[in-house]
What does this fold into?
Amino acid sequence: MLACAVGGVLWSLAAGDRQRILALARSVSVGQVLSPADLREVSIAVDPAMSTVAASQAPTVVGRTMATSLPAGSLLTPDVLGAALVPSEGQAITALALKPGMFPPELTSGARVAVVFVPSSATGSSSVFASPSAPASWQATVTGVTARADDQVTVVSLQLPEAVARQVAAVPAGQLSLVMLPGSGG
It folds into this structure.
């Protein structure tokens, strides 16, 4: 009997500090304008040091632009809304159209990847690799993953140093694959 009473008190204390805040109902990409379908309300205990967006603010959030890419379930904070935070100075974003099997299916925004050159037997070596000093792979951070409706191609946006992004963009389609690196959390 005493255990039930203590359990009830602890539960009510934990539930009493909960707040209704906004989270993402689906993954969003940098530059995307938020719609009502992108948002959902969640009830959590919020640390006072954490900056969140109250659920009552949903009408003022709809129509705002995302400053960064975030996966579904992420809590909305004021700093993820507004002008793009990426690419930062000296960085650039490039996009790759990849077929299934050329990237891990669990790939999400924020993942660290190696962009690997895969020479095509039909076209021979790319001119990007004519120089012996050109690398066969580059490290990048995924900023967006967008699957096309036909599932034939998935567009993956990558942030890399600007000069490297130019090299990656110059490689012919179908000659790059992505490898997810440790610490990606994907």
Remarks:
- The mean pLDDT is 83.
- The CA atoms of residues 28 and 69 lie 6 Å apart.
